[in-house]
Design a protein that fits this description.
The chain is α+β, with helices and mostly antiparallel strands and about 300 residues long. It is built from nine helices and eleven strands.
């Protein structure tokens, strides 16, 4: 057990588990208040706009808890507008000699978009941008189930509350971020099946909490595991070192999978597998959406 508690690194020495844990926890801590406001904004869009005290006061007066949800109307309109203005992806030729090549690339892009149900996922990210202010995708190449030795492109929408990023990033497209990542909770047995060589790291993480530590589907702040429900938190992070990207999948007890990015841009540069976007960024680098400016207006409407 003592050996498993020692700092672990990838073979290239670029990433150490204690550094990765610190990066993730720093991102989580710095965005805590911002995420609470984003949850409030989502509640308002869902019609949860009155506090318990307000509902109690209305009940004493014999009044129904009535609201006029203008926020949802606005969001639904903008989501509908995005659907109405959808266009297929298209590759443009750089010179007249590349027109046939561009057409072949265009057909490939359309094929991937259709197969991955990209229209639906894009609309879901757009809704996140409007409400919580941040959304994104994970793009990866996975072994093809149809053609042996081939790979398929997989596009996965990342839920806004499963995203984290470099707290020092100030650009809306995260172009200046030193790292981006996603977090998920998994059943211990599922995690062990996914990472058969990560048993020591997973067991160390499970041992890092007491049996009394419990949480709901959105776990307590800064916990890594739950012994009672046998769940463990798995983090995927993409870190930029100079001009190169590195990835790691880890838990607090150790790195489960890591290495240099297997992806390249069309110019041959190292590329990240996560693509995040935000609507607005305030002076403290907090991300927020269009709904934020309607909160007080909505409160005023409800009071009238």
């Amino acid at each position: 057990m003592e050996d498993s508690l020692k700092p672990q690194q990838t073979d290239d020495g670029k990433l150490a588990v204690e550094d990765l844990v610190s990066m993730f926890e720093a991102a989580e801590e710095s965005s805590y208040e911002s995420r609470k406001l984003a949850e409030r904004d989502r509640d308002y869009e869902n019609g949860k706009q009155l506090t318990d005290q307000e509902i109690t006061a209305l009940a004493k007066r014999g009044q129904p808890p009535y609201i006029d949800n203008r926020i949802k109307t606005k969001v639904d309109y903008l989501v509908g507008l995005e659907k109405q203005q959808r266009i297929n992806p298209k590759a443009s030729p750089r010179t007249p000699l590349h027109e046939e090549d561009a057409e072949a690339v265009t057909q490939s892009l359309i094929f991937v978009a259709d197969k991955q149900n990209f229209d639906y996922k894009r609309s879901a990210v757009w809704r996140n941008l409007l409400i919580e202010g941040a959304g994104g995708f994970s793009v990866s190449a996975v072994p093809s189930k149809q053609y042996q030795g081939e790979h398929d492109i997989k596009i996965t929408r990342v839920a806004w509350d499963r995203m984290f990023w470099d707290p020092h990033s100030a650009e809306a497209d995260f172009d200046d971020a030193g790292y981006l990542g996603t977090v998920t909770w998994m059943e211990y047995d599922d995690a062990l099946a996914m990472y058969p060589d990560g048993g020591d790291a997973l067991e160390t993480t499970m041992a890092s909490v007491t049996a009394s530590d419990t949480y709901d589907d959105k776990p307590k702040y800064n916990l890594w595991a739950d012994k009672k429900r046998r769940r463990v938190r798995i983090v995927e992070i993409w870190v930029k070192r100079g001009d190169d990207w590195f990835f790691a999948e880890f838990t607090k007890g150790g790195i489960l999978k890591a290495g240099p990015s297997p992806y390249r841009t069309d110019t041959g540069e190292s590329d990240c597998g996560l693509f995040f976007q935000s609507s607005y960024v305030d002076r403290d680098n907090n991300r927020f959406g269009l709904v934020r400016e309607f909160i007080y207006l909505q409160d005023a409407i409800n009071k009238r």
